[in-house]
Amino acid sequence: RESYEFSRARAESVANTETRTANTQGTLKSYQSQGTEGKRWLTAGDDRVCPICASAEAEGPIPLGRMFNNGQAGPPGHPGRCRCTLLPVREMPRVGVGGNGVRSRRS
Question: Tell me, what's the pLDDT at 93?
């Protein structure tokens, strides 16, 4: 009997996590090269979504260079079978002061 440290399940978990991490790093480089300003975490949207990923999704769009509240630049939010993905946000909302002194958001 194998211990979890060297089991097939452990090897698959590590491989899946590292592959997803590399995928996210490539995605972020692609976004950066295209002038994308922000990113957004997207979960599977079902009852199996974990609190780590749900919290990152709830942040909404954030600047491309910023980390999500879970400390990650993008999925996976945890080792194993994270089902989340990263979406580009072409332009981040701008907050400015208009001529009337009122702050407004440009979409």
Answer: 84
Backbone angles phi, psi at 11, to 5 degrees: -60, -40
Of residues 73, 16, 76, the one with CA closest to residue 44: 76
Residues whose CB is less than 8 angstroms from the CB of residue 34 and which lie 6 or more positions away in sequence, other chains included: 88
Model pTM?
A: 0.78
Per-residue pLDDT reduced to its tens digit, 53-83: 999 999 999 999 999 999 999 999 999 889 9
Mention every residue, 6+ apart, whose C-beta is less than 8 A from residue 40.
Answer: 57, 60, 61, 62, 86, 87, 88, 89
Q: What per-residue string of b and e applies to 14-24 under the rule 16 or more CB within 10 Å gives b? A: eeebeebbeeb
Side-chain-side CA neighbours of residue 11 (13 Å): 5
> How do 38-42 and 85-89 pair as beta strands?
antiparallel
Neighbouring C-beta atoms of residue 85, cutoff 10 Å: 17
